[in-house]
C-alpha cells in the first residue's frame, strides 16, 4: 500500500500511540485529521504541523459526540483514505468492590468498541471516494488472553478483534483494506504505573507504517507474538502470564 499524499483520520491522536501515529504519517507526506478530547494539545498540534493537520475536538464515549465528529469531518472533507480507530480507555476495577464500575462500563464499551464500529460504517461513503481506502483497528494482546483487573477493556478489545476479521471477510472483494494492529504493553499515559519492558509509541508507529506498506493485515507487535503462540499451543501458560 502506498502511504503518501493521503488523508488519514486518527482517533485518540493527542497522546501515546495516537500522537506518534499522527507525527509519523505527517512525516511520511500525509495530511492527518486528528481527533482528540484535549483542546490545548490539539491546538499545539495545529501550531506545530500547520496545514498538514486538521484537528477536531470531540468525545467518542457518547453517540452525540460521535455524531458531532462525523458532522465536522463531512463538512471539511470529501474523501478519507485511511481511518485509524486508536482511541481507547481502560478502567481497572473489581465488580464486587467498585461502586464506580457501573458508571464506567458504558464509557469503556462505547469508546473502545461502539465508536470504531460506527465510524467505520458512517465514514464508508467518504472512504469509497478514495483510490486506496484502508481501515486500521488498534487492539491489544488482551483480546487473546484477558487480565483479571480489566474485564470490560479486555472484552471490548476482543470484540474489536473479531469485528476486524469479519469486516475483512466482507471487504475482500472491495478496494478497502482492513488492518489490525495488536499491541503489547506500550509506554503511554494509560500505562504509566504498569509493568516493565514497555514498547515505545514511536516504535509502534514505525511498525504499523512498515506493515501497511507490505499489506500485512494482521500486525502482532512485540510480545504479542509470543502471547499468540502461547494461547494457541500452551493456553495454561498464557493464563498464568496474565
Written account of the structure:
The protein has helices at 16-27, 39-49, 63-76, 101-127, 151-170, 201-213, 224-233, 235-241, and strands spanning 7-11, 31-36, 53-57, 82-85, 134-140, 177-183, 218-220. It has 242 residues and is of the alpha/beta class. A seven-stranded parallel sheet has the order 3-2-1-4-5-6-7, with helices on both faces. α4 (101-127) links the parallel β4 (82-85) and β5 (134-140). It is globular, with a radius of gyration of 17 Å.
Topology:
Elements: E1 7-11, H1 16-27, E2 31-36, H2 39-49, E3 53-57, H3 63-76, E4 82-85, H4 101-127, E5 134-140, H5 151-170, E6 177-183, H6 201-213, E7 218-220, H7 224-233, H8 235-241
Parallel strand pairs: 1-2, 1-4, 2-3, 4-5, 5-6, 6-7
Helix pairs in contact: 1-6, 3-4, 4-5, 7-8
Our measurement of the CA-to-CA distance between the termini, rounded to an integer number of angstroms, reads 35 Å
> Radius of gyration, Cα only, in angstroms?
17 Å
Low-confidence stretches: none
- How many H/I helical runs? 8
Assign an overall shape.
Answer: globular
Compressed to H and E, one letter per element, the order equals EHEHEHEHEHEHEHH
Tell me the major beta sheet.
7 strands, parallel
Structural class, from secondary structure content? alpha/beta
**Beta-strand level of the residues, as a percent range?**
15-25%
- Find the count of extended strands (DSSP E, 2+ residues): 7
Helix percentage range: 40-55%
